[in-house]
Design brief:
PH-domain like, four-stranded antiparallel beta sheet, 5 helices, 15 strands
Length: 277
């Protein structure tokens, strides 16, 4: 269920808690809902079928000259209860898994807890990993700080054709991921601009930004010196005097609110630091 009110799913036992968190934290109207992938109803049935098949095979083999081979299905049979326990544990952990995007923030049910996040105050770390090969896919992980200061991780997975359903992950990460980043940038950029225009400094993890320049513990440059700012292989690099220099040894995935940083940096670079507006 995507881009809908979400109230159509009146059976959702977490809906009251989600709505309450949204109201208390002034998140505004619900704009989209992304369900999480749960365990399939047929999982337990498959386990029972496996028990019957393996038990039957062991019984047949024990009555033949190859009775010694019966230990193979019996060994596999012992793994079935473990599989059932893991399945039930995963199902319990992912109970109610759901992501709701609102005007001013989001709610996320993760590990049975309802988290409320406000775009104007949260910190976002994005880690996107591409897995190549015939069955290539991309995994997404967004770590946000909720209104109580707790960390909540939103996960998704997609391949070349689109969404990949996987337990514990939210549907359509290529949609909600950019939506969250754009909303956070839109909410936090005005305050960041005011800080820089008043002569202040902003820190983004190991990176810092002022009206004069950008830098880290290992590298810095004035805005008028920088020709380009790009991300290569997950690291921020500056092009100064025709040469690329690594701005920091920290990967982009470890830089909080990197998209806010990038929006500020690109504007300041293009204007030579004359204004952060």
């Amino acid at each position: 269920m995507t881009g809908q009110d979400g109230r159509a799913d009146g059976r959702d036992e977490f809906l009251t808690l989600i709505d309450g968190a949204a109201v208390r934290n002034r998140l505004g109207e619900r704009r989209a809902v992304y369900p999480g992938t749960q365990s399939q109803a047929g999982s337990l049935g498959c386990a029972v079928t496996g028990v019957v098949v393996l038990g039957g095979l062991a019984a047949v083999l024990s009555l033949t000259e190859a009775a010694v081979l019966a230990v193979v299905p019996l060994g596999l049979l012992l793994l079935v209860p473990l599989g059932i326990w893991i399945e039930r544990s995963t199902t319990k952990k992912n109970r109610g898994l759901r992501l709701d995007l609102h005007d001013h923030g989001l709610t996320a049910v993760v590990k049975g807890r309802v988290h409320a996040v406000r775009y104007e105050s949260t910190s976002v770390l994005q880690n996107t990993v591409r897995h190549t090969g015939v069955g290539g896919y991309t995994s997404y992980a967004y770590t946000l700080t909720d209104v109580d200061g707790a960390k909540v991780v939103l996960r998704g997975r997609a391949d070349r054709t689109g969404e990949v359903a996987e337990k514990g992950k939210f549907a359509n990460p290529r949609e909600w991921g950019p939506a969250v980043q754009e909303a956070v940038t839109r909410a936090q950029l005005p305050r960041a601009v005011v800080t820089l225009n008043s002569g202040g400094r902003l820190d983004f993890g190991r990176l810092w930004v002022t009206r004069d320049g950008v830098g880290s513990a290992r590298e810095s440059a004035q805005w008028h010196e920088i020709q380009e700012i790009k991300v290569f292989d997950g690291f921020v690099k500056l092009k100064v005097a025709g040469r690329w220099r690594a701005l920091t040894s920290a990967a982009v995935s470890t830089i909080p609110n990197f998209f806010v940083f990038l929006a500020l940096a690109e504007h300041l670079r293009s204007t030579g630091g004359r204004s952060a507006v």
